[in-house]
Amino acid sequence: MARGSSAGFDRHITIFSPEGRLYQVEYAFKAINQGGITSIAVKGVDSAVCVTQKKVPDKLLDPSTVTHLFKLTDTIGCVMTGLEADGRSQVQRARFEAANYKYKYGYDIPIDMLCKRIADISQVYTQNAEMRPLGCSIIMIAYDPQHGPQVYKADPAGYFSGYKATSVGVKQIEANGYLEKKLKKKITYTHDEAIQLAITALSTVLSADFKPSELEVGVVSKDDPKFRTLSEQEIDAHLVAIAEKD
Length: 246
Description:
It is a single chain. This protein is globular. It has helices at about 25-30, 85-105, 110-125, 170-185, 190-205, 230-245, and strands spanning about 40-45, 45-55, 70, 75-80, 135-145, 150-155, 160, 165-170, 215-220, 230. With about 250 residues, it is α+β, with helices and mostly antiparallel strands. Helix content is about 35%, strand content about 25%. The protein has a 5-stranded antiparallel β-sheet with strand order 8-1-2-9-10. A 5-stranded antiparallel β-sheet has the order 3-4-5-6-7. Helix 4 crosses helix 5 (about 190-205) and helix 5 (about 190-205) crosses helix 6 (about 230-245). Strand 9 (about 215-220) and strand 10 form a beta hairpin. The model has no long low-confidence stretch (mean pLDDT about 95).
C-alpha cells in the first residue's frame, strides 16, 4: 500500500492516516460545497448581517418554505451551508442547547457559548465511530448588549471562532479574499452598508446579478437586537442602492 494514498484510512472515521490526516473530516468539508451555495456574514458597527443564496430546486416547491436562515433564540440567528438535512439537524440541536441553557441558568445563552457548544458536539463526531461528521457549516450572528454585534462560525471539525466577516461554501476562498480587501480599506460599516457589502461580495464572487427572490438576508442590530429576515421588498431596495452606487 502506497504511503501517499488514502487507501483504507478513509474507511474508518477515527483513524489517522500516516500523514496525520483524518480523511472523513476532510470529506465533510467537501460535502459543504455539495449544495452549490455560498453564504457570507459581515459585522458592522452596530449590526451583523448574513446573506446566502436561495435556490428553489423544483418548480413545484413553495419558495416560502425553502430557507437556509434559522432563528436559534430570539436574538441569535444562523445561516446553514451544506447538506440541507444535516443543517436542519444541527439547528434542532442548537435550539435544544440554547433552551437547556436558559432553563439551567435563567438567562439567554451568549452567542459564543452556543457556538462553542455546537463546535464541541461536532468535534465528538470526529472521534466516535458511531457518528459521522455533519456535512454542514454554521454561521451565527447576534447583537450582544455588552460586546455589540457578533459573528461566529463553526465547522465540521469542531473549530469555531469569531469573525469581522466570513464566508462558507463553494466560493469561500474568493469571498474571503474579497472581504479581506474591503475590510483593509474600511472597517466601520453602518447597518445598510454592511448589508450591501455582503450582497455585493456574494454577487461579485459568483459573478451574478441577483433578483430579490434569489437571496436571503438575516440581520440583527442595536436598534432591533431580535434576529429577523428581510422581506423581498427590503432586499430589492438594497439591490437598487447597490446598482445606483455602481
